[in-house]
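FW: tagging you since you asked about this chain on Friday. Here's the raw sequence from the shared folder, copied in full. Didn't touch anything.
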Amino acid sequence: QVQLVESGGGLVQAGGSLRLSCAASGRAFSTLNMAWFRQAPGAEREFVAAFSRSGGRTYGADSVKGRFTISRDNAKNAVYLQMNSLKPDDTAIYYCAADYTVWGRRNEYAYWGQGTQVTVSS
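HL: got it, structure written out here
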């Protein structure tokens, strides 16, 4: 069993930055594929970024490429999402996800955190 706890969300002005963290508990973090998704009010959950257990990274919508960076620290059992140049459209609940086999934008990860709210004001 894997437990995920996100932190780092909050209210920020457009153009600002936030760094989200996801702490994982359970065995063998280094063998997990990790990802971030987000869900805006009234919208479907959207893939943001993923970091595979083998070191691969991929990003979702073109709107986040160049502004968001996913990273992980296996020694700390954590994955991060650095978000720069934030826009009001980035407002959403951000979720951390993990799976031993699922990777990338597939919305089938076995483990999910409770989410952290990010609000970007104009």
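FW: The two ends are 40 Å apart (CA to CA).
HL: agreed, and The chain has a mean pLDDT of 96.
FW: great, closing this out.
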